[in-house]
Sequence to fold (66 residues):
Amino acid sequence: MELEFKVQRAGLKGEWKTVCRNGSENYAREIYLKQLELYSIGRFRLLDPTDKVLAEGTAKPLFSRN
Fold:
């Protein structure tokens, strides 16, 4: 089994859905940061291959960005 980093998004009911799986931490981190920029609502997290949370953040509302 190949080790994979995961990017997940929290659903409306609080369950996490995987939106990206990749063997490269750098690629997964890039996708995580893009998700935070692209979405105006939602929670996102980056997980390592052992499902340890490496980063977690909340998207900013569109009109609160500078």
Observations:
- The radius of gyration is 12 Å.
